[in-house]
Amino acid sequence: MEVDVRAGLEKLAERLGGQGSRLTEAGRLSGGASMETWAFAIEAPGGPERLILRRRSAPFDEETARSVSLATEAALIQATASNGARVPTVRHVCDAADGLGEAYVMVRADGETLGKKIVSDPRFDAVRPQLARQCGESLVAIHKTAPPPGLKLKAVDGLAELDRYEEVYRATGAERPILELAFQYLRKHVPAPVEPTLLHGDFRNGNIMFDPGKGVVAVLDWELAHIGDPAEDMGWICTNSWRFGRPDKPVGGFGDYADLLAGYADAGGRPIELSRVRFWQMLGSLRWGVMCLTMYLSWRDGITKSVERPMIGRRVSETEADLVVLLEEGL
Amino acid sequence: MITHPRTEELVESVRLWIDEIRPTLDPRNAFLARVAANALATVAREITEGPAAEAAAVAGMAGVLGHGGDYAALNTELCARIRSGDLTVETPGLLAALTTMARDQIAIDQPSYRPEGT
């Protein structure tokens, strides 16, 4: 069903700001295949507000999806915020009366999210050396949050993740010797079990808003949140596909391992060994490689027709070029 | 094959035309046109560099497996023997062969990508 988002926002303005409030600005920022982000503003008796609407535009089944519902996402953002995490401020979780489908509203924050800018724009030169440490600190408040009861969060460990992605890889029918070797190697190096924690699940450069003066403003995009090994969130931000052309800076293309780990430990996180982070980093490259294969398949099988999809299939080789080096170096 | 124009020149001419009209497109189509131009650049590189890369891959895989064969057969056997645990990171020559294959493939797919360790 097509939803008139602009009309929905006009109606929402009164609910948020009280009688006499009106919508003064609304525009779609971006959108994947299934998620939309809108920037909008309202003029209310209490003053103006700049806001963000995040809404799902395609059917969703929480039982089978890897991602969580938007209501769960909002609940996790609120729970981690109360625990001191740097996350967006949730303003309103939409319900049926809003007519916007599955959606929630956040207060609009100012900052940069484009990974390429964070690693290369001179505006970030001064703050860049602090960012890896700040990312470590930011993770502690997230990992130490007890998820609100009643949320449907999946639990994942290294072996389960390898099983899951190997199954997906086998189903693609692709034959890639480097991916085979990475699966085999990682299966022999699964780290010992650890007390599982809440994870962001997509903690990488591109999903974190940074300010040129202050550094980390907010950790965004919570749809892949789950329960698991805290080193998973660290390994993903170290995966080279998210370093935006700066392989010499393992943390997001802007920092070093030691600062990430020290920031985490100094903020009260249970200290994490580098080899554990490297396990998840290598698994991150492998996972991204398998995801690229499945994106190509969605085109081959006629599910999507965008030229973007087969080209993403050719990004498997970037993960292979990274994996051979990691296999040579070891964890 | 004929040389006036060569296949890669045909591909290149279409790529240049896409780049020319890109500024006239709406943002979504301008983005997709950039992807399309990149796809054609990949095709052109595969036409020119692909045969040497495949020959190097065949030689590398034959060295590890101890016998010759065509690319597809060697690749299938290599995958099966890694999966079975018969070949590992310790196998002499395996990582070297895979590294050459990965470097040659990224040079075709995404020459601007800077892999781990560079």
Question: What is the topological layout?
Answer:
The complex is a heterodimer of chains A (331) and B (118).
Chain A (H helix, E strand, L loop, with lengths): L4 H13 L4 E10 L3 E10 L2 E10 L13 H13 L7 E4 L9 E5 L7 H6 L7 H16 L14 H15 L4 H12 L8 E3 L8 E4 L3 E5 L6 E3 L1 H8 L19 H10 L7 H27 L7 H6 L2 H14 L2
Antiparallel strand pairs in A: 1-2, 2-3, 3-5, 4-5, 6-9, 7-8
Helix pairs in contact in A: 4-8, 5-9, 6-9, 6-11, 7-9, 9-11
Chain B lengths: L6 H15 L5 H39 L5 H13 L10 H16 L9
Helix pairs in contact in B: 1-2, 2-3, 2-4
How is the biggest beta sheet of chain B arranged? none
Question: What is the count of structural domains of chain A?
Answer: 2
Give the overall form of chain A: globular
Helix and strand content put the structural class of chain B at mainly alpha
Taking pLDDT < 50 over at least 5 consecutive residues as the criterion, the unreliable ranges of chain A are: none
Structure annotation, total helices of chain B: 4
Count of distinct strands of chain B: 0
Based on secondary structure, the structural category of chain A is alpha+beta
What integer is the average pLDDT of chain B?
96
Question: What is the H/E order of chain A?
Answer: HEEEHEEHHHHEEEEHHHHH
According to DSSP, the number of beta strands of chain A is: 9
Rg of chain B to the nearest angstrom?
19 Å
Report the β-strand fraction of chain A as a percent range: 15-25%
Order of strands in the sheet with most strands of chain A? 1-2-3-5-4
Looking at the chains present, what oligomeric state does this protein adopt? Answer: heterodimer
- The percent of residues in helical segments of chain A reads 40-55%
The CATH class of the largest domain in chain A, by name, is Alpha Beta
Most extensive chain contact? A-B, 33 and 35 residues
Number of domains of chain B: 1
Summarize, please:
Chain A is of the alpha+beta class. Chain A is built from eleven helices and nine strands. Chain A has two domains: 5-107, Phosphorylase Kinase, domain 1, CATH 3.30.200.20; 115-329, Aminoglycoside phosphotransferase (APH), C-terminal lobe (Aminoglycoside 3'-phosphotransferase, Chain: A, domain 2).
